[in-house]
Amino acid sequence: MLSNIGIPGLILIVIVALIVFGPNKLPEIGKAFGHSLKEFKNATKGLTSNEEKTK
């Protein structure tokens, strides 16, 4: 999905995000997204390790 965006699309997304959220709010949003992604990764890692133990 992301491979179809390209550089111009990515630049457009960043510009729209700056306009909508403002430059002061973007680091907080990025930090929250990173934290959520880390928790999701840990949760899925735990699920796969539970499946391997039961086999």
Automatic annotation (TrEMBL):
Keywords: Cell membrane, Membrane, Protein transport, Translocation, Transmembrane, Transmembrane helix, Transport. It is found in: Cell membrane. The keyword Protein transport applies. Coiled coil: none annotated. The chain crosses the membrane at residues 6-23. It is a single-pass membrane protein. InterPro entries: TatA/B/E, TatA/E. Pfam families: TatA_B_E. Part of the twin-arginine translocation (Tat) system that transports large folded proteins containing a characteristic twin-arginine motif in their signal peptide across membranes. TatA could form the protein-conducting channel of the Tat system. Forms a complex with TatC. HAMAP family: TatA_E. Belongs to the TatA/E family. This is Sec-independent protein translocase protein TatA.
